Amino acid sequence: MSTHVDAPASVERKAPTTQIGRSIPRLESRAKVTGQAEYIHNLRLPGMLYGKIFRSTVPHGRIVGIDTRAAKELPGVFAVITGEDVRALVPEPYYGPAFHDQPVLAIDKVRYVGEPVAVALSEDPHVAEHAVNLIEAEYEDLPAVFDEVEAAAATDVFVHDVLKPAGMFPDLKHLHGRTKTNVALDFSLRRNDVEQGFAQADYVFEHVFRTPTVAHTTLEPIVSVGEPRGSQALTIHTSSQSPSFVRSEVARLLGWPENHVRVRTAFLGGGFGAKLYIKLEAMVAVLALLVKRPVKISLTMEEQFYTITKHATTVHLKTGVTKAGKITARHCEAWWNGGAYADIGPRVTQKSGFTGAGPYDIENVALNSYAVYTNLPPAGALRGFGIPQLVWAYESHTDLIARELEIDPLEFRRANILRNGRPQATGTIMRDTATVEVLDSLSSAMRWGESFDRGQGSVRRGRGVAIGFKACIAPTTSVAIVNLYGDGSCAVYCGTVDMGQGSDTAMAQITAEVLGLDPQSISVIHPDTDVTPYDMATLGSRSTFHMGNAVRLAALEAREKLFVIAGKALQADPSLLTVADNYVSAPNGQRLSISEVIKSCFLMQAGNIIGTGSFRPSYTSPSQGDGQSDDITPFWMVGAVGAEVEVDTETGRVHVTRLVNVADVGTPINPAIVTRQLNGGALMQLGFTMSEAVRFDNGQAINASLADYKIPGILDIPDQTVAEIAEGCQNTGPFGAKGAGETGTFAVSPAIANAVHDAVGVRIFDLPLTPESVYRALRAAQHQPLEDQQ
Amino acid sequence: MSAQLREISFTLNGKSVTAEVASHHTLVEMLQEQFHLYGARESCGQGLCGCCTVIVNGRSVSGCLYLAVFADRADVVTVEGLAKGEQLDSVQEAFVSCSGFQCGFCTSGFILMVNQLLEQNASPTEDDIRHYLSGNLCRCATYPDIITAVQAAATTLRKE
């Protein structure tokens, strides 16, 4: 582990007060319960136009013509913009974090139903919406491909004529200029000899598991406002999880230096990965510059389904195991349905792909992971970055193996679990990872050794467990500033976006711990790229660790400067000073308030004491071909779930009575907020397990609304939802902490499927576990399949 | 769309107000554009998520579907009308102390619905709470803490 700015050893001593491990209420509590919290959703600017998007109705087609005349003639319409207008301002208007493949508005071709083709602008959003209905487009239909396995093997239908990797990632360079393929990344990992491992096994098991496309449905729909400042500068107000990326990508598109683009956010009404990279930002930037007015685009819930989804997957697993229950080899082949534009899909494919063998100590591993273009809406990150799809497969598979070997499923996992000091499949040695502790806590929380009521009559009960893990994304950078003002009050400037995970509060607690302040008194300045320094993004459970470390380093530097000034005023050795409750104290008992110290330097209530912190963990890129790396991640997250279910054998309905999730989060900064994140993650994944699936008909999403796409409501949650934090410490994290935002999601789906199997003896291989799918499986198991399956 | 505007008068959080609205304007649009109240907010646009909840004449409505003209001569209460100055109401206090929210986007709707629940039923069971709040969605799934917050608010209100 290395940091850009190492704190001097003299300031490493423990602060006298302890803010860490305290479940204080969130800083923004009052604003959120009074309706006063700021969201970009609320923003209205003088002279602002509303944009409404005209979208493709075909999954794959050449644009023959777009007729905007009637729309332009509608009274109140300010302008109607198409891809050709965009190209007049930006000759190469293609963006994306991994591939420069996505046009601001469709050019020449459309690649999915729902792709933006034109935008109508008006001061009245109703007029803009009406104008969209007057636009007509003519397409020459092209053959389309929807299934990820078929698309990967296709020889005649290609979503993109040529692959255009963004160039930021060395492992994508070999794909540059490749044609006649839909595979946007083919990651492979080889550890020892998987075929030899299968030869050593007494049994070999093979299964295929699938997950469907699902949707984020953030309740604050994706929204951006572009505000021109002359023709060479621009402000983008946006509900973004990655303001620094938006700035650099929009600057690149416009050919401007980054300092001409200002990107700011407010609170986000949910993110979950939907609001990463570029969503509407490039569009509102270009529109605002074209029409020289501020432009706001706020999606409807339906439009969110056409903007970003979570990858549907097909995962093929093959495992060799001895009679005694030792896993000797595992081969995992995963196809990721990336939709028409790569977004961050190739990163999901690689960063999650290398964990495809699960948190197990397996000598021989082969992993293949394919990011595949299809004619569906783009898929990106969704709370877990591909991990829940893989855990669904490998933990369903692992359970089937334990069941077949007649070994207790928890014992089978414990016997094969990857322990600290042992190499993960990449070769990176596992450290500070509480795999064993998580299984132990799960066992006791589930009262696993005790007898279990199996139900009676038509309602059968069962229980199941599962465990998953994730490597935090690397390499990434966070930079922070801690600023003490003349009156002794304090602000933290950081690019972490608070989208409900409580990062403002965590950063305030870290700062307060170092500077002896009340965390509730600290202001956390929301991301504004003209003000707050660089942060890679708020994603992948990285903020507590990366930004937490940067904030801690910034606070330590501010404290060091404060002590130098205070040392003069108190005539004491700065290295012997302490700070608590707003006072700096010398060993002889003399003390000065922080504001008095600052005044002693600036002679009045003036000036600032500023500390900066910059943090980037070390990293070794996996080698091309075998995917091996001695330093693949700064930390591992572990999440296990136990589920108790009731299955109604007459209807196939599954009711989860108890859901226990246990996580390794290191030492939590704010245990209550972490617990809430764990439960929230688990219950979100409960939706992806039980009911959620975006259904497509020839590429058209047919249930793109909350009426037809069922997310969990309060009646759908288990009778009991429990989150437990396992004993753990991430020694490289700020005060022992590591990320927690995704961990609750990892193992929910297979734990429930395993419990269903335990209850009624049937296995579901494809999510979601709807009553229909369970009932069909029950009928098939009784050799009485439903008529349409005979 | 160049619909005629009509003046309506109503009580908004205890004050008499007037507004100019077209027949197609929703209550949420009017509250945001003419009164700069953003606590009620449109999310699903179908009256399914509860983010746009507003109390009209003592009953909760979906402000994204409820037309503004229907508020004429009505008594309208939004989340901004619950606190007395700096003093939060008991439900708001309970949502703070139990952290019955994460991103906060759905919170206004939940708080208004919980107030309505506790007016009708001072001692709701967990089942009562779940059924009453089944029309409010929280994508952060803070439901367990919301249930705790409702129980805490009920306890406080019974003591008052």
Total strand count of chain A, please? 33
- Give the tally of structural domains of chain A: 3
**Rounded mean pLDDT score of chain B:** 97
Largest sheet of chain B: 5 strands, mixed
Order of helices and strands of chain B: EEHEEEHHHH
Q: What CATH architecture of the largest domain in chain B do you see? A: Roll
Q: In DSSP terms, counting alpha (H) and pi (I) runs of 4 or more, how many helices of chain A?
A: 19
- CATH topology-level fold name of the largest domain in chain A: Aldehyde Oxidoreductase, domain 4
Q: What is the overall pLDDT average of chain A?
A: 95
Distance between the termini of chain B: 50 Å
Work out the helix count of chain B: 5
The biggest beta sheet of chain A is recorded as:
7 strands, mixed
Q: Share of helix among residues of chain B?
A: 25-40%
Low-confidence runs of at least 5 consecutive residues of chain A = 1-16
CATH class of the largest domain in chain A: Alpha Beta
Q: What is the CA–CA distance across the termini of chain A?
A: 59 Å
- Most extensive contact: A-B, 61 and 55 residues
Report strand order across the widest sheet of chain B. 2-1-5-3-4
The poorly predicted ranges of chain B are: none
CATH-derived topology of the largest domain in chain B: Ubiquitin-like (UB roll)
Characterization of this structure:
The complex is a heterodimer of chains A (790) and B (160). By secondary structure, chain A is α+β, with helices and mostly antiparallel strands. Chain A folds into three domains: 9-37 and 476-615, Aldehyde oxidase/xanthine dehydrogenase, molybdopterin binding domain (Aldehyde Oxidoreductase, domain 4), CATH 3.30.365.10; 41-144 and 222-298, Aldehyde Oxidoreductase, domain 3; 309-473 and 622-789, 2-Layer Sandwich (Aldehyde Oxidoreductase, domain 4). Chain A is 26% helix and 24% strand. Chain A has 19 helices and 33 strands. In chain A, the strands form nine sheets. Chain A has a seven-stranded mixed beta sheet, sandwiched between helices. In chain A, a hairpin with a 5-residue loop joins β29 (636-648) and β30 (654-664). In chain A, α7 (243-254) crosses α8, α11 packs parallel to α18 and α14 (503-515) runs parallel beside α15. The longest helix of chain A is centred in the last third of the chain and has 28 residues, at 543-570. Chain A is globular, with a radius of gyration of 27 Å. Residues 1-16 of chain A have low confidence and may be disordered. Chain B is an alpha+beta fold and 160 residues long. In chain B, α2 (90-97) crosses α5 (143-159). Chain B is globular and about 50 Å long. Chain B folds into two domains: 5-80, Ubiquitin-like (UB roll) (Roll); 90-159, [2Fe-2S]-binding domain (DNA polymerase, domain 1, Orthogonal Bundle). Chain B has a five-stranded mixed beta sheet, with helices on both faces. The mean pLDDT of chain B is 97. Classes of the chains: A alpha+beta (790), B alpha+beta (160). The interface between A and B is large, with 61 and 55 residues.
